[in-house]
Amino acid sequence: MTQGTFDPLLVSDARDLGFDPDRLVRLEASLAADIEKGTCNGIALVVGRAGKTALVSIQGYADRAEGRELGADDVLVTFSSGKQFTGVTVLNYIERGLLQLHRPVAEVIPEFGVNGKAKINLAHLLTHTSGIPPFAPTEDPAGDYDLEKYVAAICQTAPETLPGQAVKYSITTAHSVMAEMVRRVDGGNRPFRQIVEEEVFLPLGMKDTALGKPDRLADRVCPVVVTDHSPGLLDPAMLEGTAQGLTPESEMPAGGYVTTISDFARFAEMLRNGGSLDGVRILSPGMISMATTNQTGDMPNDIWNYCVETRNWPVFPANLGLGFFLRGEGTFPTPFGSLASPRTFGGIGAGSTCFHIDPERDMFVAFLSTGLLEESRSTERHQRVADMVHAALVD
Hints:
Elements: H1 21-37, E1 42-49, E2 52-63, E3 68-69, E4 76-77, H2 83-95, H3 105-108, H4 122-126, H5 147-155, H6 173-185, H7 192-201, E5 210-211, H8 215-218, H9 236-245, E6 257-259, H10 261-272, E7 276-277, E8 280-281, H11 285-291, H12 305-310, E9 325-326, E10 345-349, E11 353-358, E12 363-370, H13 375-392
């Protein structure tokens, strides 16, 4: 395990970490071309290996309209990459003995067990196999970001598939329910945003990461702008409204987090390092090993159904662990790259964010961007970036 203090922005000699510097330059040039073409506005990238940083690349704009350049201190909305912040908190509470994977949700949230949901358990939520709808039935899918109100709405829904029988990607609902489970077994006195801050972010030194948009970070949050309006999965207007709707009290545990590239990389490094960072342990190596094992078999992820016709994508396995996406095996679109080892794991967020850890190569990639792409095209960009990183690893 890595010892000492990890500074994601302190770059070591790439050669010493097994990378070809010229190939990393080629990667940076590819990202610069994306910004020049206007497919995105700004990109922040950190590549780490064996506890050190091989590349930091921060290019483009925090706010292109204002001409403000993107910097290391800028704060970006995570979108669904924040699901892994919530998932790690859940796994941490399992390790504390407060939650169990097989435990029905209704044992913790009794009002959840109506309308055919009594047999849904925590593992179903973590693997997107619970069958509950992707959004709660409210006029505004994000509501006012009040966790308890949103979970109350979810409790009145009926599942759309039987638990464990299909991967029905939960855009906002499953992680809201899991956050409420954590809040209740924690004693019900701390809001979830405080729990994740005190139990995950502060111990990891992620001082510029939060659920919601606290006043201390508000002036540094980059505006959410969609640069690619191709027809796709999510409504651009909804995405652009996300950052504006966040407040210090907001709790949308599926994607309403904000972070910096340094904090994002610290989170990835903790996972690469077997669950600990700078002497602080969040998860055990055994938990990470189990959570990054395929739990969904050959079932496809319904989130990509629209791409089968619109993009001529193949149907491929969801490759989901307990709260993490996995690379798996085969040839298909993957944000973690075709060259990554099968046990590579991580998270992705709407049109913009991605992190992944390749345990076989002992490395991670953390990526944030301003200017959102359509979801399938964002996945293809992440795949290109990951492949170029792996192609630069020559030792």
